[in-house]
Amino acid sequence: MSVQCTLPDLGRATPKGASSAAGHLTVTNGGTTPDRLTCVSSDAAAQCQIHTMSLEGGVMKMRPVEGGLEIPSGGTVTLKPAGLHVMLVNLKHRLEPGKMVELTLKFEKAGTVEVELPIAAIGAPAPGVAAGGTMMMDGGHGGMMQMDKH
Questions:
Q1: Sign (positive or negative) of CA dihedral 125, 21, 85, 132
Q2: What is the pLDDT at residue 50?
Q3: Which residues contact 2 (CB under 8 A, 6 or more apart)?
Q4: DSSP single-letter state for residue 86
Q5: Low-confidence spans in the chain with pLDDT less than 50
Q6: In this structure, are strands 20-29 and 85-91 parallel, antiparallel, or unpaired?
Q7: CATH no. for residue 63?
Q8: What pLDDT was estimated at residue 5?
Q9: Looking at residue 40, what is its pLDDT?
Q10: Is there a contact between 68 and 108 (Cβ–Cβ < 8 Å)?
Q11: Alpha-carbon distances of 43 from 48, 90, 128, rounded to whole Å
């Protein structure tokens, strides 16, 4: 099992008193079987969820994704603004620009992987492609996860 995650950012820094933040990343499954992102957690928030956003009757609605997020074999799933995203709920502290937030991603097959997402400034443009380093991490249970950090 091979999963590649590209991590643009954790959305924006949070103003004082904010209780939630969104995270964005792209997950590519290079394996021959589907995998499922079943859980996300972080010490920065009491709860982390995978959410989806959709436009219904002219109103943007956000809901948790039930049962995890399937990553098809050979496929890519992008978590981005106004679509699928990681939601950090009940933040334990303000998210400050230039710092990192650690997330734990749990996959059914690739196992548990620790990742860090950089925090962009309030008002920064939406996540995009930026220069960054690459590191290989053992995804647990025999899986490798390549992290292209941006």
A1: positive
A2: 92
A3: 29, 30, 31, 110, 143, 144, 145, 146
A4: E
A5: 1, 128-150
A6: antiparallel
A7: 2.60.40.1890
A8: 61
A9: 87
A10: yes
A11: 10, 11, 26
- Here the tokens at position 112 are 């548990």
Give the whole-angstrom CA distance, residue 96 versus residue 112: 26
Q: What is the pLDDT of residue 101?
A: 87
Between CA 99 and CA 115 the distance in angstroms is 13
Three-state DSSP state, 56? strand
Q: Which residue is it, tokens 């937030």? A: 101
Domain count, the chain: 1
Owning domain of residue 134: 2-149
- pLDDT score at 3: 57
pLDDT at 36: 93
Residue 6 tokens, joined: 């590209």
- What are the CB-based long-range contacts (under 8 Å, 24+) for 71-74? 71/3, 71/27, 71/28, 71/29, 71/34, 71/35, 71/36, 71/37, 71/107, 72/29, 72/34, 73/29, 73/31, 73/32, 73/33, 73/34, 73/35, 74/29, 74/30, 74/31, 74/32
